[in-house]
# Entry
Amino acid sequence: MTRTNRRPGRAWIITPGLRTERFARAQKSGAAVAVVDIEDSVAGPDKHTARTASETFFAITDPPCTLGIRINSLTTLDGIKDLVALTAYTARPDLILIPKVESPRDIELVAAALDTDGYTPDIWALIESPRAFDTLPAIMRAPRLGGVVFGSADYAASVRCGLGWDALHYVRSALINAATAANIPAIDAPTWELDSPDILRRDAERAKELGFYGKGCVHPRHVEVIDDVFAPTAEEIAQARAIVAAADASGGTVTTVDGQMRGTPFFNAARALVAEADRTS
# Structure
């Protein structure tokens, strides 16, 4: 099963495809992934203009982050036009984000259309409908799937529930479970309150606790908070190193660290955290 070797990052920033004056700001926001959007943020009559304008988003030398594009649903004519346009882009995205994925066929179609001449972009799926959650195991098995992003707004609208954490806790947990079983990363939806850093931090902390690798955002000022939450703290790193040392000393058998029992699952998690800390230090 082929999986992406690129790290998904912590903060993902999404910027409208028609707002070319915002492109550089998004790219330099500090986010690990910057995505230009030609789906929900662009009205139907403006899709062609956004599709053309978005090519300039990728015409940057030595970009400071992974650059991606959210295309339109592949069940629409605009989605097909997006794929055709992408094959003609001189500068191409590192990452393709497919909205409203409900079948592994969506991932297969994008791969078949774009995997040419050595170009194999990361392909990520937006999971944002009840039908998608019904078919999660099949979607997660798509060989070219690099990761998943939770689409809270569309999901909440489809089931007529609120956007609050409690209303969407079950589906977030279901997404994390399926993604972890498939060994792929999951990114949480943005927090829609633009001017409430406390709410953003609380949402990011909850997402991290559930198992998300990062979180989307729609404004550059959200990036710093998201990165701060998802970066392992000095205390977490020190604790992980202590667990790894205890595991090595015990030969991998169950042991105690600071009065708490620790075994293989804890050893594996600690080693992963230490490896991440060493890579980014």
Q: What stands out?
A: The chain has a mean pLDDT of 92.
